[in-house]
Amino acid sequence: MMTNDTQNPLLAVRDLRTYFHTFSGTVKAVNGVSFEIGEGEVMGLVGESGGGKSVVGFSVLGLIDEPGKIEGGEILLDGQDLVTAGEDRLREVRGREISMVFQDPMTSLNPLHTVGRQMDEVLRLHTKLDADARHQACVEMLESVGISQAAERLKAFPHQFSGGMRQRVVIAIALLARPRLIIADEPTTALDVTIQSQILKLMRQQIADKGASMILITHDLAVVSEMADHITVLYCGNVVERGKTRDLIETPSHPYTRGLIDSIPDTAHRHDRLMQIPGSVPDIRNLPKGCNFRDRCPRAQALCAQQEPVLTKQHATLWAACHYPLKPGETA
Amino acid sequence: MFGYLLKRLIQMTLVLWVVSVIVFLMMSFTGDPVFMVVPIDATDSEIAQARRLLGLDQSPLVQYWRFLTSLVQGDFGQSYVFRQPAMTLILERLPATVEMVLVAMVMAVAVAIPLGVYAGANPEGRLSRTIMAGSLLGISLPGFWVGMVLIYLFAVHWGVFPSSGRGDTAELFGLRISLLTWDGWHHIILPAVTLSLGTMAILLRMTRAGMMEVGRQDFMKFARAKGATRHDVLYKHGLKNALIPVVTIFGLQLGDLIAFATITETIFSWPGMGKLLIDSIYRADRPVIVVYLMLVALIFVVINFLVDLVYTLIDPRISLK
To answer: Which of B16, B31, B65 is the last residue of a domain?
Structure first.
């Protein structure tokens, strides 16, 4: 049931379940998510706020804290499971094999350490380079993400950089140890619109240069449609649809994906008003039986309340979890 | 930088001046020192003469002016009791107090920081709860009681530490220091432990609160995402960010212990300044009390200044302005 045809995926997530055990009940933030990424691929992970996107990213790096816990599933990096791996192995993976870019560049850097020291830390942890070689690598990396006078800027503290510049530093840190996979969690959401496209362009170019793969976590389908090779759409901790970017954007088969696409402002279309998905995400602590999306779905019927739909093959490269999927050309 | 130092110097002088006014007023309201210097059967004319000699027949303003000018010149007068310069008396005893306080502060920090970091990083753990309960004891148990219990257990019952006195001292730059001799260390442990418990508990709780706050910050998770060890994340990234309030309290406690180690010094017969202060108050030995209070004010002002300097070393966003 895989959408992409890679024989040996770099990362394969199988039936991942990450739950949070809170006072008011168990939150099944990620509840049976599967996907694969091949070498050099960019995958978009899309959904509304609270859909479990970030939790997937943190789960892959083993950074789920109490009261959260990975309750089941596999996260296979080159076929080796990270869920059952020890903390030592995970530390080798973090930064070296898989690195992460956070949403808010204003808070992801330590305010009390120089930018140089924070970059150097990655190289000290993951390479055997001597101090001079590390310094040289930091200068080159900082220059390659578009920060001039890099040698000087290494001595500066984060508060001496603007938000966009800080995100460049964060990206530089993420790329420094040449990881094979970068998880970017809403990397442009906290930035000015004018800076957003610069940063996205930078990430796309850097990832292509280094032959790395990327999981781009975002709520913004417009962003992923430009960047991603394929897209996985999450709703309430479940994969509702996935497929190649072009198929999924042009002819989505799940009504939720359709809704997301229709709510992108588009000057080429003649909508008088922006479309929206009615209602809001249900309380994830006690999800209704059947399809989680049925209360907001224009196509819902009696069956949707009784039986949870499973991912099934649709047209083109798409897989969707829907009893009444859209056919190409059909509108919701 | 120079401008800042000048500004701080002026501020510090101002504070000390205000303290001198308060000290002078307090002294004027607390009894008549003439009766401390004259014999018990002195005649009225002898009393009047002594009063004139001490300058106590002048108006308060003149008295204050003379008080201030002699302070500025470093003349703090003679102790009525010991017939020695008051400053000399205090400075003889200052090293004993300071070394006891320093040992106490080092103990407090050495215990409080690691336990505070641990309790802040694992707030739900059983060990953390035990640490926090212990720290509550450290805050609430009075020093005199702890001192007596320690004397009973370690001096009387087990006989491993002496119960009083300072032991052998060695001379360094003209100062008598206990920490240079084995016997001195033997004597300093119990009073230093007694003195450190309260500060230890407060610093521990401050560290824990700071670490819990910092633990929620994105950069801590980002540091872990880089592959840093748990120890590095907590100590290199977390602790430094939690340190500002801890340093503040550290400075205040340091001054507080130097100034008011009186009770501990009394219990352990430690020949420090605190004991001298108590004796001087009993005997209304005004010059000694004045020097003591002025010295304590100076110590607080200097420590506060140093704490502000330390802030700038910790956080580059804080600048000397």
So the answer is: B65
Do B43 and B97 lie in one domain? The reply is: no
pLDDT, averaged across chain B: 89
Residues of B in Cβ contact (< 8 Å) with A102: 218, 221-222, 225
Whether residues B298 and B256 share a domain: the answer is yes
Q: What local confidence, expressed as pLDDT, does residue A7 receive? A: 64
Is B237 an interface residue toward A (CB < 8 Å)? Answer: yes
- Give the nearest chain B residue to A103 (CA atoms): B218
* Same domain, yes or no: B38 and B102: no
Are residues B211 and B102 part of one domain?
Answer: yes
Task: Report which listed range, A2-11, A127-136, B262-271, is most confident.
Answer: A127-136
Cα(B106)–Cα(B270) distance, rounded to whole angstroms? 19
Provide the shortest C-alpha distance from residue A46 to chain B (in Å): 22
- Which residue range is the domain that position B308 belongs to? 86-314
Res. A20 pLDDT band, cuts 50 70 90? very high
C-alpha to C-alpha distance for B130 and B208, rounded to whole angstroms: 13
The answer to whether the Cβ–Cβ distance between B237 and A100 falls below 8 Å is no
On whether both B59 and B90 belong to a single domain, the answer is: no
Q: What percent of chain A has pLDDT over 90?
A: 59
**Number of domains making up chain B:** 2
Which chain B residues contact residue A126 at CB under 8 A? 227
Q: Across the interface, do A94 and B223 touch by the CB < 8 Å criterion? A: no
What is the tens place of the pLDDT at every residue in A201-211?
888 888 888 88
Residue A82's pLDDT is what?
94
Distance between A172 CA and the closest CA of chain B, angstroms: 12
Are B45 and B163 contained in the same domain? Answer: no
Give the C-alpha distances (Å, rounded to integers) separating B243 from A106, B204, B240.
21, 11, 5
Residues whose CB falls within 8 Å of the CB of residue B88, separated by 6 or more in sequence, listed in order? none
CB of B313 within 8 Å of a chain A CB? The answer is: no
How many domains does chain A divide into?
1
Residue after which a domain boundary falls, among B33, B65, B97: B65
Cβ contact B227–A113 (<8 Å) = no
What does the pLDDT read at residue A267? 62
Q: Which of B84, B56, B59, B289 is nearest to B47 (CA)?
A: B56
The nearest alpha carbon in chain A to B315 belongs to A112
Is residue A294 situated within a structural domain? yes
Chain-chain contact of A95 with B227 (C-beta, under 8 angstroms) = yes
What ipTM score was computed for the predicted complex, to two decimals? Answer: 0.89
Residue with tokens 């790096």: A61
pLDDT score of A87 more than 80: yes
Same domain, B195 and B253: yes
Cβ-defined contact of B222 to A170 (cutoff 8 Å): yes
Cβ–Cβ < 8 Å for B176, B100? no
The answer to whether residue B319 sits within a structural domain is: no
Q: Which residues of A touch B224 (CB under 8 A)?
A: 63, 94
Give the tens place of pLDDT for each residue, A34-63. Answer: 999 999 999 999 988 777 889 999 999 999
If one compares B209 and B160, the residue with the highest pLDDT of the two is B209
A92, A111, A170 member nearest B317 (Cβ): A111
CA distances from A326 to A242, A301, B96 (A): 14, 14, 86
Question: A4: pLDDT confidence band, cut at 50, 70 and 90?
Answer: very low
- Say if CB A195 and CB A161 are below 8 A apart: no
Residues 6 or more apart whose Cβ sits within 8 Å of residue A74: A12, A13, A14, A15, A16, A81, A83
Rounded to a whole number of angstroms, the distance from the CA of B11 to the nearest CA of chain A is: 29
Task: Tell me, yes or no, whether B35 and B182 share the same domain.
Answer: no
